[in-house]
Design a protein that fits this description.
single chain; alpha+beta; OB fold (Dihydrolipoamide Acetyltransferase, E2P); 2 domains; six-stranded antiparallel β-barrel; 4 helices; elongated; coiled coil; MdtA-like_C; Efflux RND transporter periplasmic adaptor subunit; RND_pump_MFP; MdtA-like_b-barrel
Protein backbone atom coordinates (compact mmCIF):
# COMPACT_ATOMS: atom_id res chain seq x y z
CA UNK A 1 0.00 0.00 0.00
CA UNK A 2 2.85 2.34 0.84
CA UNK A 3 4.70 1.51 -2.44
CA UNK A 4 1.64 2.29 -4.50
CA UNK A 5 1.29 5.73 -2.95
CA UNK A 6 4.93 6.56 -3.76
CA UNK A 7 4.69 5.26 -7.39
CA UNK A 8 1.85 7.53 -8.54
CA UNK A 9 3.58 10.84 -7.69
CA UNK A 10 6.68 9.70 -9.58
CA UNK A 11 4.64 8.92 -12.70
CA UNK A 12 2.80 12.24 -12.55
CA UNK A 13 6.07 14.18 -12.25
CA UNK A 14 7.55 12.39 -15.25
CA UNK A 15 4.52 13.17 -17.39
CA UNK A 16 4.65 16.87 -16.49
CA UNK A 17 8.37 17.08 -17.35
CA UNK A 18 7.72 15.41 -20.68
CA UNK A 19 4.86 17.83 -21.57
CA UNK A 20 6.96 20.82 -20.55
CA UNK A 21 9.83 19.72 -22.78
CA UNK A 22 7.50 19.21 -25.74
CA UNK A 23 5.86 22.61 -25.31
CA UNK A 24 9.21 24.39 -25.06
CA UNK A 25 10.42 22.78 -28.30
CA UNK A 26 7.30 23.58 -30.50
CA UNK A 27 7.96 27.29 -31.33
CA UNK A 28 11.47 26.58 -32.53
CA UNK A 29 10.30 23.67 -34.59
CA UNK A 30 7.48 25.77 -36.15
CA UNK A 31 9.88 28.66 -36.93
CA UNK A 32 12.34 26.40 -38.67
CA UNK A 33 9.63 24.50 -40.52
CA UNK A 34 8.23 27.57 -42.44
CA UNK A 35 10.11 27.95 -45.79
CA UNK A 36 10.53 31.38 -47.49
CA UNK A 37 7.67 32.19 -49.86
CA UNK A 38 8.52 32.05 -53.54
CA UNK A 39 7.66 35.12 -55.64
CA UNK A 40 8.19 36.38 -59.17
CA UNK A 41 9.77 39.78 -59.63
CA UNK A 42 10.58 42.26 -62.40
CA UNK A 43 13.82 44.19 -62.08
CA UNK A 44 13.32 47.78 -63.20
CA UNK A 45 15.52 49.32 -65.90
CA UNK A 46 15.57 52.87 -67.35
CA UNK A 47 13.14 53.33 -70.20
CA UNK A 48 12.46 55.68 -73.11
CA UNK A 49 8.75 56.10 -73.84
CA UNK A 50 6.80 57.94 -76.49
CA UNK A 51 3.93 60.03 -75.19
CA UNK A 52 0.79 59.40 -77.24
CA UNK A 53 -2.73 60.67 -76.82
CA UNK A 54 -5.66 59.35 -78.88
CA UNK A 55 -8.66 61.68 -79.13
CA UNK A 56 -11.81 62.21 -81.24
CA UNK A 57 -11.37 64.52 -84.21
CA UNK A 58 -13.17 65.93 -87.24
CA UNK A 59 -11.86 66.78 -90.70
CA UNK A 60 -12.14 70.43 -91.80
CA UNK A 61 -11.44 71.86 -95.26
CA UNK A 62 -8.13 73.69 -95.57
CA UNK A 63 -9.94 76.50 -97.38
CA UNK A 64 -13.65 76.92 -97.97
CA UNK A 65 -15.43 79.44 -100.21
CA UNK A 66 -19.15 79.98 -100.54
CA UNK A 67 -19.90 81.34 -104.01
CA UNK A 68 -22.53 84.12 -104.12
CA UNK A 69 -23.54 86.58 -106.88
CA UNK A 70 -22.43 90.19 -106.61
CA UNK A 71 -25.02 91.59 -109.03
CA UNK A 72 -28.71 90.94 -109.67
CA UNK A 73 -29.82 89.00 -112.69
CA UNK A 74 -30.93 85.79 -114.37
CA UNK A 75 -28.48 82.88 -114.61
CA UNK A 76 -27.79 82.18 -118.28
CA UNK A 77 -25.35 79.27 -117.93
CA UNK A 78 -23.67 76.99 -115.42
CA UNK A 79 -20.11 76.46 -116.58
CA UNK A 80 -18.73 73.75 -114.27
CA UNK A 81 -19.25 70.08 -113.51
CA UNK A 82 -20.66 69.39 -110.07
CA UNK A 83 -18.21 67.52 -107.85
CA UNK A 84 -15.29 68.39 -110.11
CA UNK A 85 -12.11 70.37 -109.63
CA UNK A 86 -12.06 74.10 -110.38
CA UNK A 87 -9.24 76.63 -110.51
CA UNK A 88 -9.18 80.07 -108.93
CA UNK A 89 -10.59 82.58 -111.47
CA UNK A 90 -12.44 79.92 -113.47
CA UNK A 91 -15.93 80.98 -114.63
CA UNK A 92 -18.70 79.14 -112.82
CA UNK A 93 -21.90 80.97 -113.85
CA UNK A 94 -22.90 83.50 -116.49
CA UNK A 95 -25.53 86.05 -115.42
CA UNK A 96 -27.52 87.83 -118.17
CA UNK A 97 -25.17 90.76 -119.10
CA UNK A 98 -27.42 92.93 -121.34
CA UNK A 99 -28.46 95.39 -118.63
CA UNK A 100 -24.89 95.88 -117.44
CA UNK A 101 -23.59 96.28 -120.99
CA UNK A 102 -26.11 99.09 -121.48
CA UNK A 103 -25.06 100.74 -118.22
CA UNK A 104 -21.41 100.62 -119.31
CA UNK A 105 -22.26 102.13 -122.70
CA UNK A 106 -24.18 104.94 -121.00
CA UNK A 107 -21.31 105.62 -118.61
CA UNK A 108 -18.86 105.81 -121.49
CA UNK A 109 -21.13 108.24 -123.34
CA UNK A 110 -21.37 110.46 -120.26
CA UNK A 111 -17.59 110.41 -120.01
CA UNK A 112 -17.25 111.45 -123.65
CA UNK A 113 -19.70 114.34 -123.08
CA UNK A 114 -17.73 115.44 -120.01
CA UNK A 115 -14.49 115.41 -121.99
CA UNK A 116 -16.06 117.59 -124.69
CA UNK A 117 -17.31 120.05 -122.08
CA UNK A 118 -13.85 120.13 -120.57
CA UNK A 119 -12.30 121.21 -123.87
CA UNK A 120 -14.78 124.08 -124.21
CA UNK A 121 -14.28 125.19 -120.63
CA UNK A 122 -10.51 124.99 -120.93
CA UNK A 123 -10.47 127.08 -124.13
CA UNK A 124 -12.72 129.73 -122.56
CA UNK A 125 -10.54 129.89 -119.41
CA UNK A 126 -7.41 130.42 -121.51
CA UNK A 127 -9.04 133.11 -123.64
CA UNK A 128 -10.46 134.99 -120.63
CA UNK A 129 -7.10 134.83 -118.94
CA UNK A 130 -5.53 136.79 -121.85
CA UNK A 131 -8.38 139.29 -121.98
CA UNK A 132 -8.15 139.92 -118.27
CA UNK A 133 -4.45 140.76 -118.58
CA UNK A 134 -5.44 143.42 -121.17
CA UNK A 135 -8.23 144.65 -118.86
CA UNK A 136 -10.78 143.73 -121.57
CA UNK A 137 -12.95 141.80 -119.10
CA UNK A 138 -13.56 141.98 -115.41
CA UNK A 139 -11.89 139.65 -112.92
CA UNK A 140 -15.32 138.22 -112.08
CA UNK A 141 -15.81 137.07 -115.65
CA UNK A 142 -12.45 135.27 -115.53
CA UNK A 143 -13.25 133.68 -112.17
CA UNK A 144 -16.51 132.32 -113.60
CA UNK A 145 -14.66 130.82 -116.58
CA UNK A 146 -12.03 129.29 -114.29
CA UNK A 147 -14.72 127.76 -112.06
CA UNK A 148 -16.47 126.23 -115.07
CA UNK A 149 -13.17 124.70 -116.22
CA UNK A 150 -12.47 123.18 -112.80
CA UNK A 151 -16.01 121.77 -112.59
CA UNK A 152 -15.50 120.18 -116.01
CA UNK A 153 -12.29 118.55 -114.73
CA UNK A 154 -14.15 117.20 -111.69
CA UNK A 155 -16.95 115.90 -113.89
CA UNK A 156 -14.39 113.92 -115.88
CA UNK A 157 -13.33 112.10 -112.70
CA UNK A 158 -16.97 111.40 -111.78
CA UNK A 159 -17.70 109.91 -115.18
CA UNK A 160 -14.46 107.89 -115.15
CA UNK A 161 -15.56 106.38 -111.81
CA UNK A 162 -18.99 105.64 -113.31
CA UNK A 163 -17.35 103.81 -116.20
CA UNK A 164 -15.19 101.81 -113.81
CA UNK A 165 -18.27 100.87 -111.73
CA UNK A 166 -20.17 99.80 -114.84
CA UNK A 167 -17.20 97.73 -116.04
CA UNK A 168 -16.95 96.08 -112.61
CA UNK A 169 -20.66 95.21 -112.52
CA UNK A 170 -20.44 93.80 -116.04
CA UNK A 171 -17.45 91.72 -114.93
CA UNK A 172 -19.51 90.41 -111.98
CA UNK A 173 -21.93 88.82 -114.42
CA UNK A 174 -19.14 86.27 -114.80
CA UNK A 175 -19.26 84.46 -111.44
CA UNK A 176 -15.76 83.03 -110.93
CA UNK A 177 -14.16 80.64 -108.43
CA UNK A 178 -12.40 82.57 -105.63
CA UNK A 179 -10.15 79.58 -104.78
CA UNK A 180 -9.04 76.32 -106.32
CA UNK A 181 -10.60 73.13 -105.02
CA UNK A 182 -13.48 70.68 -105.28
CA UNK A 183 -16.86 72.26 -106.02
CA UNK A 184 -20.10 70.76 -104.73
CA UNK A 185 -23.57 70.74 -106.20
CA UNK A 186 -25.14 73.83 -107.68
CA UNK A 187 -28.04 75.26 -105.67
CA UNK A 188 -29.38 77.22 -108.70
CA UNK A 189 -30.02 76.29 -112.32
CA UNK A 190 -30.24 78.27 -115.55
CA UNK A 191 -33.15 80.70 -115.50
CA UNK A 192 -33.02 81.30 -111.75
CA UNK A 193 -33.10 84.87 -110.48
CA UNK A 194 -30.25 85.73 -108.14
CA UNK A 195 -29.50 88.88 -106.19
CA UNK A 196 -26.34 90.53 -104.98
CA UNK A 197 -25.09 89.39 -101.57
CA UNK A 198 -27.95 86.91 -101.15
CA UNK A 199 -27.85 84.56 -98.15
CA UNK A 200 -28.23 81.39 -100.26
CA UNK A 201 -24.98 80.23 -101.83
CA UNK A 202 -24.74 79.24 -105.46
CA UNK A 203 -22.15 76.54 -104.73
CA UNK A 204 -19.39 75.73 -102.22
CA UNK A 205 -15.72 75.10 -103.00
CA UNK A 206 -13.48 73.15 -100.60
CA UNK A 207 -9.72 72.87 -100.83
CA UNK A 208 -9.03 69.33 -99.60
CA UNK A 209 -5.27 68.90 -100.00
CA UNK A 210 -3.92 69.42 -97.45
CA UNK A 211 -6.77 69.19 -94.95
CA UNK A 212 -7.20 70.26 -91.33
CA UNK A 213 -7.94 67.89 -88.45
CA UNK A 214 -9.66 69.56 -85.47
CA UNK A 215 -9.01 67.55 -82.29
CA UNK A 216 -10.92 68.02 -79.05
CA UNK A 217 -8.39 67.72 -76.23
CA UNK A 218 -9.24 68.11 -72.52
CA UNK A 219 -7.65 71.28 -71.18
CA UNK A 220 -6.09 69.25 -68.36
CA UNK A 221 -4.09 67.18 -70.86
CA UNK A 222 -3.01 70.27 -72.78
CA UNK A 223 -1.87 71.86 -69.52
CA UNK A 224 0.17 68.76 -68.65
CA UNK A 225 1.83 68.84 -72.09
CA UNK A 226 2.76 72.50 -71.72
CA UNK A 227 4.18 71.86 -68.25
CA UNK A 228 6.36 69.05 -69.64
CA UNK A 229 7.64 71.35 -72.37
CA UNK A 230 8.33 74.16 -69.90
CA UNK A 231 10.18 71.80 -67.55
CA UNK A 232 12.17 70.53 -70.58
CA UNK A 233 10.98 66.96 -70.11
CA UNK A 234 9.97 67.18 -73.78
CA UNK A 235 11.82 68.74 -76.69
CA UNK A 236 9.65 71.53 -78.13
CA UNK A 237 11.84 72.28 -81.16
CA UNK A 238 9.68 70.22 -83.54
CA UNK A 239 5.91 70.16 -83.86
CA UNK A 240 4.19 67.01 -82.55
CA UNK A 241 3.16 64.48 -85.19
CA UNK A 242 -0.41 63.23 -85.63
CA UNK A 243 -1.58 59.83 -86.87
CA UNK A 244 -5.17 59.36 -88.00
CA UNK A 245 -7.56 56.40 -87.94
CA UNK A 246 -10.57 56.45 -90.24
CA UNK A 247 -14.18 55.79 -89.26
CA UNK A 248 -13.83 52.11 -90.20
CA UNK A 249 -10.84 51.74 -87.86
CA UNK A 250 -8.16 51.57 -90.55
CA UNK A 251 -5.06 53.74 -90.25
CA UNK A 252 -4.63 56.62 -92.70
CA UNK A 253 -1.35 56.38 -94.60
CA UNK A 254 -0.34 60.04 -94.16
CA UNK A 255 1.16 61.71 -91.08
CA UNK A 256 0.03 65.14 -89.95
CA UNK A 257 1.66 67.93 -87.98
CA UNK A 258 0.17 69.80 -85.05
CA UNK A 259 -0.42 73.45 -85.95
CA UNK A 260 -1.78 75.23 -82.88
CA UNK A 261 -4.05 74.94 -79.85
CA UNK A 262 -7.07 77.13 -79.34
CA UNK A 263 -6.95 79.95 -76.82
CA UNK A 264 -10.44 79.33 -75.42
CA UNK A 265 -11.71 76.44 -73.29
CA UNK A 266 -15.23 75.20 -74.01
CA UNK A 267 -17.09 75.89 -70.78
CA UNK A 268 -19.53 73.02 -71.32
CA UNK A 269 -17.00 70.26 -72.07
CA UNK A 270 -13.72 71.63 -70.72
CA UNK A 271 -12.06 70.86 -74.07
CA UNK A 272 -9.65 72.86 -76.20
CA UNK A 273 -9.60 72.50 -80.00
CA UNK A 274 -6.17 71.48 -81.28
CA UNK A 275 -5.67 71.77 -85.04
CA UNK A 276 -3.40 69.58 -87.15
CA UNK A 277 -2.68 69.67 -90.88
CA UNK A 278 -2.26 66.49 -92.92
CA UNK A 279 -1.71 65.69 -96.63
CA UNK A 280 -4.80 64.45 -98.46
CA UNK A 281 -3.65 63.80 -102.05
CA UNK A 282 -6.42 61.33 -102.92
CA UNK A 283 -9.16 63.33 -101.15
CA UNK A 284 -9.91 60.33 -98.95
CA UNK A 285 -10.62 62.64 -96.02
CA UNK A 286 -13.68 64.81 -96.47
CA UNK A 287 -14.88 67.81 -94.44
CA UNK A 288 -17.06 66.78 -91.53
CA UNK A 289 -15.70 63.22 -91.37
CA UNK A 290 -15.25 61.83 -87.83
CA UNK A 291 -11.77 60.46 -87.08
CA UNK A 292 -9.53 59.24 -84.25
CA UNK A 293 -6.33 61.26 -84.02
CA UNK A 294 -3.24 60.13 -82.09
CA UNK A 295 -1.00 63.01 -81.06
CA UNK A 296 2.63 61.93 -80.69
CA UNK A 297 3.75 64.53 -78.18
CA UNK A 298 7.39 63.50 -77.80
CA UNK A 299 9.75 61.23 -75.88
CA UNK A 300 10.57 60.90 -72.20
CA UNK A 301 14.00 59.40 -71.58
CA UNK A 302 15.37 57.49 -68.58
CA UNK A 303 12.02 57.05 -66.86
CA UNK A 304 10.77 54.25 -64.62
CA UNK A 305 7.92 51.98 -65.73
CA UNK A 306 6.36 49.71 -63.13
CA UNK A 307 4.22 46.70 -64.12
CA UNK A 308 0.56 47.37 -63.37
CA UNK A 309 0.10 43.97 -61.71
CA UNK A 310 2.79 44.93 -59.21
CA UNK A 311 1.10 48.18 -58.16
CA UNK A 312 -1.96 48.26 -55.92
CA UNK A 313 -4.27 51.10 -54.94
CA UNK A 314 -6.09 51.63 -51.67
CA UNK A 315 -9.60 53.06 -51.26
CA UNK A 316 -8.16 56.58 -51.29
CA UNK A 317 -6.41 56.01 -54.60
CA UNK A 318 -2.91 55.93 -53.12
CA UNK A 319 -0.55 53.54 -54.94
CA UNK A 320 2.02 51.19 -53.45
CA UNK A 321 4.31 48.35 -54.53
CA UNK A 322 6.13 45.52 -52.78
CA UNK A 323 9.85 45.19 -53.46
CA UNK A 324 12.53 42.80 -52.24
CA UNK A 325 15.38 44.16 -50.12
CA UNK A 326 18.99 42.99 -50.15
CA UNK A 327 18.29 40.54 -47.27
CA UNK A 328 15.33 38.96 -49.13
CA UNK A 329 12.65 40.68 -47.09
CA UNK A 330 9.52 42.39 -48.41
CA UNK A 331 9.40 46.18 -48.28
CA UNK A 332 6.31 48.25 -49.04
CA UNK A 333 6.90 51.39 -51.12
CA UNK A 334 4.46 54.28 -51.58
CA UNK A 335 4.63 55.32 -55.22
CA UNK A 336 3.24 58.10 -57.39
CA UNK A 337 2.20 57.01 -60.88
CA UNK A 338 1.20 58.89 -63.98
CA UNK A 339 0.17 57.84 -67.48
CA UNK A 340 -0.32 54.19 -68.42
CA UNK A 341 1.89 52.69 -71.13
CA UNK A 342 0.57 49.30 -72.17
CA UNK A 343 0.71 47.10 -69.06
CA UNK A 344 2.91 49.54 -67.13
CA UNK A 345 2.55 52.70 -65.08
CA UNK A 346 4.85 55.68 -65.51
CA UNK A 347 6.39 56.10 -62.05
CA UNK A 348 6.97 59.66 -60.86
CA UNK A 349 8.40 58.74 -57.44
CA UNK A 350 8.84 55.81 -55.06
CA UNK A 351 10.76 53.34 -57.24
CA UNK A 352 14.28 53.34 -58.65
CA UNK A 353 16.32 51.59 -61.32
CA UNK A 354 17.30 48.11 -60.08
CA UNK A 355 14.34 47.69 -57.71
CA UNK A 356 12.81 44.20 -57.79
CA UNK A 357 9.05 44.64 -57.87
CA UNK A 358 7.00 41.59 -56.85
CA UNK A 359 4.40 40.69 -59.49
CA UNK A 360 3.42 37.11 -58.48
CA UNK A 361 2.77 35.65 -55.01
CA UNK A 362 1.46 38.91 -53.55
CA UNK A 363 -1.53 37.26 -51.85
CA UNK A 364 0.51 35.22 -49.37
CA UNK A 365 3.09 37.80 -48.25
CA UNK A 366 3.32 41.10 -46.45
CA UNK A 367 5.94 43.63 -45.34
CA UNK A 368 8.99 42.12 -43.57
CA UNK A 369 8.17 38.62 -44.82
CA UNK A 370 11.04 36.36 -45.90
CA UNK A 371 10.84 35.51 -49.61
CA UNK A 372 12.86 33.79 -52.28
CA UNK A 373 12.82 34.68 -55.97
CA UNK A 374 11.35 32.01 -58.22
CA UNK A 375 11.48 34.01 -61.46
CA UNK A 376 13.33 37.29 -62.06
CA UNK A 377 12.55 39.16 -65.29
CA UNK A 378 14.82 42.06 -66.22
CA UNK A 379 13.10 44.88 -68.08
CA UNK A 380 14.54 45.52 -71.51
CA UNK A 381 15.32 49.05 -72.58
CA UNK A 382 12.62 51.14 -74.27
CA UNK A 383 9.71 48.81 -73.42
CA UNK A 384 6.27 50.24 -72.95
CA UNK A 385 6.72 52.95 -75.59
Amino acid sequence: MIRTNLFYPLIAGFVMLTLTACQSSEPGQQQSSQPAKKVDVITLAPQTVTLKNTLPARAVAYRKAEVRPQVNGIIDKRLFEEGGEVKAGQRLYQIEPALYEAQLANAKAQLASAKAALKTAQAKEERYKGLMSDNAISKQDYDDALSTFEQAEAEIKVQQAAVKTAETNLGYTHVVAPISGTIGKSAFTEGALVTAQQSNVLATINQLDPIYIDISQPSKQLLALRKRVISRELNDLSAPKVNVNLEDGTEYDQVGTLQFAGVDVDTTTGDVVVRAIIPNPNHLLLPGMFLRATIIEGELKDVILAPQKGVSFDKNGSASALVITADNKVEKRDVTVGQAFGENWLVKSGLNVGDQVIVEGLQSIGPEANVSIDKNTLQTANTGA
